[in-house]
Amino acid sequence: MYLLKNALVYAPEKIGVKDLLIVGGNIAAVAENLTVSLPDLEIIDAKGLILTPGLIDQHIHVTGGGGEGGPVSRVPEIQLSKLVVCGTTTIVGIAGTDSITRPISALLAKVRALTAEGISGWMYTSNYALPPSLLSNSIRDDLFLVPEVLGVKIAHGDHRSSFPTIDEMLRILSDIRVGGMISGKVGVLHIHMGDLPGSFEVFTEIIKRGIPAKHFRPTHCERNERLFRESLAFVNQYDGIIDITSGGDSFTGSAAEAVKIALKEAKAENITMSTDGGGSMPRFNAAGDVVGLTTCSPSGNLKALQALVKDGMPLETVLPTITKNPAHHLGLTGKGRIEAGMDADLCVFTEDMNLRHVMAKGKFLMRNKEIIVKGVFEE
After folding, report:
1. Which of the residues are catalytic?
2. pLDDT one-digit tens code per residue, 295-324
3. Diameter of the chain by CA atoms?
4. Residue 377 domain-assigned?
5. Which residues, in sequence order, are bridge partners of residue 292?
6. How many domains does the chain have?
7. pTM of the model
8. Considering the domain boundaries, does residue 224 fall inside one?
9. Could you give the angle at the alpha carbon of 215 between the alpha carbons of 212 and 221, nearest 5°?
């Protein structure tokens, strides 16, 4: 049990200097000048520090991405400490191009391992290809039978995708929608957006046929200016939800700049950010051959947050993109906010936004910048 005193709290909205009582993995109380007498209670003075919800990374290759350059180009799995050090307390794991050596069952195993090690994990079933790579016999069964599964991932507008037709996407979305209803989940189609044009025309046609926009989750929306502008229009015209990749390349020069534009020009509560951590960024020549590879860092969300705040954007404006917004739109109960009854997933920053402490489910994973909980196979 912990009592954090005198912290400047962003919940993610700024609510002022408060005390937090943490009991049994949850936030028991948030108030001014709490006086508590409990056995084994540790009181921590957080005066001069900033307290936020733990960060949510809703698109991360925890089993490693890559493979476009052969087996040697497979990115290693992400270890727990690599997430903790950048304040990530909740992940949604995804698969990438390689559906051969990175089966979906391995993704589920890794998500469960990270959850057992200390953070909270969910996932999307399938990867780039059609028919979907599933854990069971159907999308509906995956959503109902596997608690961690939030929806399905596919690729669209990418030369590595299966180029799904409107009818194929309609069938997938119908299964996602019904499976979500039966399982009590939102049910989402998480869509890797490539460089090729025409994707949003497909989405809007499907919406006109009766599938609500809330089930579409396009990501990598800052990849090029055309795609970015279509993404903002999708938000403003259809109340769509879009995701910006903090760990990759952006036509604006940085993900932080793309987020800044999106928050100003579109409905802010429908903007999210994720790292693509562990994913590879292959470079292809005109012949379609891989000529280079780099890897996205799981620290992208933290770095973008710090850059935007340093640039003068209010913390309470940026913070929802990696806390409240993804938690709300994905139906992650207990996540993304600081209030009584929520999970005690917390980040503690210095006034200049250096990360000092990280807590997940009421347990410190990093304290005074030292990782104190590591993965099973970490030294």
Report:
1. 276
2. 889 999 999 999 999 999 999 999 999 999
3. 70
4. no
5. 283
6. 2
7. 0.96
8. yes
9. 115
